[in-house]
Amino acid sequence: MLRFIHSYNLQAGFVLCILMLGMIISAEFLMSISMLALMLLAIFQFKDGRLRLREELLDNFKNLYQQKVWLAVMIPFLLVIITAPYSNDDTHYLLERLRIKIPFLILPFAFVSIPSFSKKEYHNLLYIFFILITIASIAVFTNYIAHFEEINLNISKGQPIPTPTNHIRFSLMLAYAIIIGFYLYQKEHFIKYQWEKWLLGIGSVFLLFFIHLLSVRSGLLVFYLTCGIILVRYIILSKKYFLGAFMLLAMISLPLVSYYAIPSLKIKIAYMKYDYLQYKKGNGASYSDSERLQSLHMASKIIQENPIIGIGAGDLRYAMNKKYAEFYPSIKDHERKMPHNEYASILAGAGILGFILFMLYCFYPIFYNRNYQEPMFLAFCLIILFSFMVENTIENALGVALSLLFLLLGLNYLKGEASM
């Protein structure tokens, strides 16, 4: 009976994770439903025809407490709670922060309650995500070709290529999918047929081309930084210095070749130069890069005035609006941006003390039980950490879901590996 319950929990958790992988690309509402279903699976079970609390519920709470890595994942939510007492000026924004970040509180318990995925199951989930991203990218590429002139004109005005979801978050998913594809190709992974290896290889090359065509700089930056670190790690561990040097040279050359070969990337870089010139001239309103720089300028002022405990996570929007009114009064309310940097957001909202806690969230899962030895887990953590430098990644529901799903999938798999 216990074996049946274990198998049922594992299969149900596996199916719900697949649903989340699909929904994270296109349907945020259904993604939230999948999260809720995972939590309910962790708490309740059907027994003797009735819905009951799980018999292992207390044991799972003990595991959550004993394995401190799961508690570290909760820190982004706790930072909002800790700073709530002095977030007095914008109750609506405070409640919005709590709502958006509550998955950091509930999902670690959901994943600690699911039986550990095997390596095959973990790789299958990554493979399914790779397939979903490839299909979505083919659809985006087809639409780009069909509206080539119109979309390129929009890019020259600072608008992104249309994607199924937020283009920045999509580019982060794309960066991870490329790394997954090449990794599973090297591992000769397949679900049913051996020829699937070639599907992985061809798909990975297409996605590598496509991430340059999409020309979202956040995605490109985190992709190259992550690949650089993984490649250096591979060279050191394998001691294949000649091959490694060749691969590094190829990686460095790829952006240059892409610039001359892919029109959308060339147009994007030209717009970026124009945008920066406008910022230098003081004409930054409504230009994307200028808005980013202005938001960081405002955040730096808040950090300087509240360095130790911050302004309060719930008051960050209020404080940003005050700074905009002081330094950029011509910028209208709807054009004002929150800090385009997660680290700056944390420092402004929770101060240096909160930032220290946030660093625990960032790095403890990587070094816990030497989790950095698992390449796909390390790659995803690096992508998210690098994204924090250019985006406030976990300040919306999609970013929270993206950052949590693969982090918790990896931790769930690795807890099983550690117990073997």
Structural class: mainly alpha
SS strand fraction: under 5%
Topology order in helix (H) and strand (E) letters: HHEEHHHHHHHHHHHHHHHHH
What are the low-pLDDT stretches, counting only 5+ consecutive residues below 50? 1-6
Biggest sheet layout: 2 strands, antiparallel
* pLDDT averaged residue by residue: 88
Total domain units: 1
The helicity comes to over 70%
Distance between the first and last residues' Cα: 23 Å
Number of helices: 19
How many β-strand runs? Answer: 2
Overall geometry comes to globular
Radius of gyration: 22 Å
Strand order of the largest sheet: 1-2
What does the secondary structure layout of this molecule look like, with pairings?
Elements: H1 2-26, H2 28-43, E1 44-47, E2 50-53, H3 57-66, H4 68-73, H5 75-83, H6 91-101, H7 103-113, H8 119-146, H9 148-155, H10 167-186, H11 196-214, H12 217-238, H13 241-261, H14 263-280, H15 288-305, H16 316-327, H17 342-367, H18 375-387, H19 397-419
Helix pairs in contact: 1-2, 1-8, 1-19, 2-7, 3-7, 5-6, 5-17, 7-19, 8-10, 8-11, 10-11, 10-12, 10-18, 12-13, 12-18, 13-14, 14-15, 15-16, 15-17, 18-19
In short:
It is built from 19 helices and two strands. It is mainly α and 420 residues long.
Question: Which key phrases capture this entry?
Answer:
420 residues; mainly alpha; two-stranded antiparallel ribbon; 19 helices; 2 strands; 75% helix; 2% strand
